[in-house]
Amino acid sequence: MRPFELTAPTTVDAALAAPGTFLAGGTTLVDLMKLDVLTPQHVVDINDLPLRGIDTGDGLRIGALERMSDIAAHPGVYPVIARALLLSASQQLRNMASIGGNLMQRTRCSYFRDVATPCNRRHPGSGCPAISGTNRMHAVLGTSEQCVATHASDVAVALVALDAELRLASAEGTRTVALADFYRTPGETPEVEHDLRPGELITEVVVPRLDWASRSTYVKVRDRQSYEFALCSAAVALDVQDGHVVDARVAAGGVATVPWRLPAVEAALRGAPATPAAFEQAASLAPEGAKPLSGNGFKVSLLKRTIVRALLELTEGSR
């Protein structure tokens, strides 16, 4: 790790005035600094900022510095969010990692994390060796000729499914952005991963009230039971009345360059009977536009099966 200067402001205004890279739990940033993927000269420790608190009174509001384990254990947090958090990383890392930091984490693409290899996210124009190389863990949706890296966060998938928003602060003021709009697919500029502007800080995550999201889940398929990133995941919330789906929220992870909302699947579910056949028909729409690579074509069928599994998990006791 290269030398750097560290400051630790105690107010949001002071943090916004301090030049450097923000540090919260450090579970991603410190790793990348050790690998020389990121080499900030100035690091701003924001752990003393008043950006904590969880409010479930009307929807859900989460301070950006709340730790993942505390959110998962908090009464009233939607099950899909709590489960996504509990299936992330290890207990030790969940105790350290902040929700804001988790949403800002970088891809786990091995080429991105190896500074001896080209990577368009690290050095635009250098190439993407994953396209013709080892790409089993990579994306089939939202890709481009510049980048095929998957987005790493589990809870971001659940939050996108529930129309979450971010509150952002800067020296110029505050603004709100939908999390689904915050993330950027690579296109021609894979180095631009999100809509956070220079000097901005995530202060809060806000999830609108959705009473029927009490029937929700997160299914994560991975190579081993714990401490592993998703090959595919599905965040699903379902409103079922009289044996039919009234409304649905569905998003996928592990298969796309950003948390991937699936409006076509949601539309197909609305009004359909809550049956395995209807679930399979709706899930068949999920891979639309997929571009499999040499090593990850299995993700097309895995995506459909994962969504069906999540839907069945929510309805098996009610049919």
Automatic annotation (TrEMBL):
Superkingdom in the source lineage: Bacteria
Entry-linked InterPro entries: CO_DH_flav_C, CO_DH_flav_C_dom_sf, Diverse_Substr_Oxidored, FAD-bd_PCMH, FAD-bd_PCMH-like_sf, FAD-bd_PCMH_sub1, FAD-bd_PCMH_sub2, Mopterin_DH_FAD-bd
UniProt xrefs under Pfam families: CO_deh_flav_C, FAD_binding_5
SMART domains: CO_deh_flav_C (SM01092)
PROSITE patterns, A to Z: FAD_PCMH (PS51387)
Alphabetical UniProt keywords: Oxidoreductase
Ligase keyword on record: no
Molecular function terms, GO-annotated: FAD binding; oxidoreductase activity
The protein, known as: Xanthine dehydrogenase YagS FAD-binding subunit
Species name: Goodfellowiella coeruleoviolacea
